[in-house]
Amino acid sequence: MTGGRIDQLLAAAHAGDATGDAALALAARLRAAGHEADVFASTVDEELSEQVRSIDELPPSSSSDTTILHFNIPSPLNDVLVSRRGRRVIVYHNLTPPELLLPHCPEIARLTALGRRQLHDLAASGAVDLAIGVSRYNTADLDETGFGTTTTLPLPIDLTGLRGPTNPVLEADLAHTRAPTFLTVGRVAPNKRIEDFIRIAAYYLRYVSPEARFLIVGGTHGLESYLDVLIELHGELRLDGRVAFTGKVSPLDLITYYRNATAYVCTSAHEGFCAPLLEAMAAGVPIVARPATAIPETLGSAGVLVDSDDPAAWAELLGLIAEDPELRASLAAAGRRRVRDFDTDAVLDLWLAALANGAGA
């Protein structure tokens, strides 16, 4: 790593987003190591306005500088990266395949297809000195796309907040019943296969036990057409408040949901890393997940993988977890062991070493 500035570029900086959080954590560690480091974004949530600068404020670059582009959506920042002097790095967070977004979100599918073309253009330009995948799954994609020097580094995610206080009002509401609580977290997008989560809930409530709660925690902005399909399915299956959409929640509420979960359920068909798995592990929540894309890599041996589209297979397993405290304790302990592999300080050390040496661990 050179002695110049280290600037990170984001297409969008959203509060609570794992990509933005990782960029801010890296910038803080770089500054602590004596580097001049900032994060710039084309759009910035008001909550982050004091931590993330507008891309319009990006200073000119010199041959001693390093510019890092976090790539997860198409944007004009690709051209900004190529135009910069000094070292040019991309961090690839993956792109959801367009076919997983159709037919519910055709506009988002178009954007991810554009992003794929932009990724190929970046590789073909030869301008990128180092391409980092946040999972081996992502790095394999970078290698196949044609980037020269690649490496794998996990996302630096600060999980200490999960040991913080909960929302006492929500806590009391969730504690009102002893029924098991099954949780899934993330944007309510088609690749998350939320319809599978809903079908699992329907089977569980009818054939395993009528006493349970299934919570879908995540934002729906820009995904309203998919949400409409899910709500229609919810009605067709005659489900009630035991299967609920919370929308996007505050960090305090998110901690509370994790703390009160019997199991975390990941039905997603595509993940470049899957930060909620780390959150669930850190909170001591047993995990049941689909073995798709980067999910097995992130999860390791800390959960149960279900390679089936049959809701019965998932629901029966959730029933076993709900009824067996020793099984829950064993899975929770496995998660806590696994999450230590993602210790924030240790991961950031790997990032600094990779930026200094041009290669990862």
Q: Name the CATH architecture of the largest domain.
A: 3-Layer(aba) Sandwich
Low-confidence stretches: none
Overall mean pLDDT: 95
How helical, in percent, are the residues? 40-55%
> Main β-sheet: number of strands, strand sense, barrel status?
7 strands, parallel
Please count the helical segments: 14
Distance between the termini: 15 Å
Proportion of residues in β-strands:
15-25%
Question: What would CATH call the class of the largest domain?
Answer: Alpha Beta
How many structural domains? 2
Order of helices and strands: EHEEEHEHHEHEHEHEHEHEHEHEHHH
Structural Rg: 21 Å
Shape: globular
CATH superfamily of the largest domain: Glycogen Phosphorylase B
Fold-level CATH name of the largest domain: Rossmann fold
Provide a descriptive summary of the structure in words.
With about 350 residues, the chain is an alpha/beta fold. Helices cover about 45% and strands about 15% of the residues. A 7-stranded parallel sheet has the order 3-2-1-4-5-6-7, with helices on both faces. Helix 7 (about 195-210) packs across helix 12 (about 310-325) and helix 10 (about 275-280) crosses helix 13.
